[in-house]
Structures are given as structure tokens and as C-alpha cells.
Design goal:
Length: about 475
Amino acid sequence: MTRTDGRILALDLGTSSARALVLSAVDAAPVPGALARYKISPTYATGGSATLDLHEYVEGLLGCLDELQQNGHLDDIGAIVLSSQWHSIVALDNKGSAVTPVITWADTRAVSLDLGSSFDEHAFHARTGSWLHRLYWTRRIPWLLSEGSPAGFAGLPDLVLERLTGERVTSVSIASGTGTLDLAHGSYDEEALDIAGVKADRLPPIVPTGWTGSLSSEFGRRWPGLVGVPVHPPTGDGAASNVGTGGYDETTAAVTVGTSAAVRVVHPIDDAPELPWELWRYRVDDKRAVTGMAFSAAGNLHAWLTGVLQLDSDEPTGIEIGSSRVIAAPFQAGTRPPETVASGSGVYFGLSFDDTAADLLAASLQGASLEIDRGLRMLDSLFGRQLQVVLGGGGIDASAWWRRCLTATFARPTTVCAEAEVGARGAAAIALGLSPDPGGEHLTPAPAEVDRVHTLRPRYTALRELAVKASRELG
């Protein structure tokens, strides 16, 4: 990996937007005004469908580049990097054309698998970092094969890269999010392929981190300043966000709050600690992995509540952290594997006529903080130390109350990343060997807030157990 003398063009392939932005080559900080965004509206339908229109998505992204070009921002670009949502899949025909929309991580359609008593899912999880969950290609490909006769499969970032360069390849980072990668060897896992019912030649080839492509002649004519600029393979958004936040070694956990939330640690893949069943592990690049836990309720929960409750403020004004009588298990969007709490399982307990909209918002943000804390404590144990914590992402940036709540819940100091564009920044850092500093404010937990959260924790744990049980029995 080498640094670039020019600025960096970052393409960020999210679920709610496709973005193009220009970053400084020194510290991967966004260049003021050099950002273009295309809003994406996933299509949700009965049966668990959650999809994106591939053509609209790609054309929207290309339009972002046109906008940057028109405003003079595509000059002096030395590298093109990509950060992308993990877990998407598209079925392809024998000509490589898409025969399905982009099926996102939120789509719940998949086949159930019965592999018999000889299958060792714990060994499979230790090797691939994933479970036999509908999130992964091990269950999605058999479902797609049962619905038609696709010749191949690829993810959204693979097809964006192909549109730009003419080469359909994937990175070890993106491949790890499919659940079909042997993490230690960085190649497709034979047992995972057998379960999915495909050979490796039906999936995009995995290229090393140092691979680069170049824009096709079509786009060279469209954006002359990008001719010959190396295009680096994409990085999964979770790995990119960790590094972009400043959590790029095993001393530091990064907590990122966007649409969903996660707590993760980046560490060498060699001699990695044994993976606990409750955590996932993916790859950052050829030498590093990222281990963590993800949560389905975060910024989406905050946005939903402020809309439903018609709050004038995004903050639970007047509510002291840890003080609300109301407790909430934030399972409105269910849970990630290995737990199987279904969407629609959110719970409030302790409501009275004295409670306000601010009480409900505070209880939900506190519940989400306690969920993240569960993952952080597992990572503390895994790496044998109390980890330093950096906070980043749009949800962190939007709410000072939530930043303080997380700090009190973790009962340790935190550092807030000064840059909101952590995914794009991290993709640049990974591709070019940069080590960005968080550069933001340092928060110290208030003892009174820590004590109140400590007192609240057993009540939350009891409610959580009831919510999980009710989801299984009533779902």
C-alpha cells in the first residue's frame, strides 16, 4: 500500500444514499464542499423483501461524479477508493447481467437449511466468522437458485466496480461479508460453497488488497481528470468505519452509530484470538480482521421516535442519563445473529401517565447504549484489557445526549471522532496506508450518571430476557 500525492476520490455505497466525496491525501479529511449525494429509497414489500434498483443506484452514483466534475472537484485526484455496505447480493445471467434487484442486508427472504447432525456450526463460525443466517450467501444463494436459474452472483460493490473498470472482482473484505470466506486463508471456503450449492467460479474472483484497476475509456472521456487514476478494491463499511474513526488496532474499540450500530476491534488476522460464538469476524484487508457485534436499532430508531413522537428536538431534553423510570428493549428492527429476535419486538416497561415523549426517547437511547455495551464487554474479555473507545458516525454526530449516555454506560472515557465521513475516510486509509487520528472531543463519564446506569442495568437485563422469550413464544 502506498500513499498518493493527489487528493482521494471516495465512493460510499450506503443503503440510504450513494455518495462521492473528495478527501485530503494527508489525513483523509473531507475537502469542504466536495461532496455529492444521491438519496436511495429501498423498496420494502410483503414477504420480507428489501431491495435496491441496481440501475438507479449506479446511475445515481455516476451523477454524483458528474456533479463533482461540474464544480471542479475532480482535478488532482491520485486514487479512487470505495466503501460499501456488506451482505448484498445480485443474481446474474450467463451474460453477467442482473436478473434481480440488489438484495440488501435487511431482506429476510432465504431458505432454511437442515445439514444434519454431522454439521459443526461452531467450527464453521470459527472459520468463516459467520453463522448459517439469512444475512449470508450460504442461505441466500440456495433461495435464489430455487427461484430461477442464475448463472452467477455478485454484490453491489462488485457490480459498481465492474461498471467503472470493466472488471468484475471482489476484495477479501467484501467477500468476508458474504459468509463464504475462509478468514485465515482469504479464499472461498469449500464447505460454505457446498452449502450454498455453487462453485467458486460462479462468484467474483478475490483480488489482493494491493490490486488496482482503472476507469474504462467511456468514463475517461466523461471525467478526463480521472484517466489513469488507480481504482482500489472496495472495503466493507464496518471495517472502513472502524479505521476511519481511529480504531485501527487491538487497543481500541470503535463504536459507530449510523442507520444501525456496531462495536468492533481491528486486529491482525495472524494469531487472532479464538472467536466467541456471539461475535462475528470479517476481514479488513490482506493482513487484518475486524471482530465485533452489530445492532439493528440505532439511527433508524432515533429517526423513527423523533418522527412518531413529533419531538421538536432530537434530544431527550430535561432527562438525566440513567434516571428514567421507563426502560426499553430496542428490538423494533429485531436483532442480528446469532440471536433470532424478530422485527417488531420492541418493548417499553414502566410507563405511566407522568411520562413524556422525552422519557420514551431517553429510554430507547439508553436501551440501545446498553445493547452496545454488551458487545463492548465481550470484546474487553476477548482482548484481555479494558479497551479504549472512539465514537463515530452520523448518530454520534447528531446527539450530544447520546454521546454522554454511551460514555456513562461504558463507564470509561471516550473520544468522539471529529469527522462524520468515517466510512469514506477509512476506505482511503486502508487502501493507502494512512492512520487517521480521531481528532475530536474527549468525554469523561460523570460519576452520578455512571451510578444511575449501573442501578438501571439489572432492570434492563430482566426486561431484555423477557423480550427475547416473548419473541420466541409469540413470534
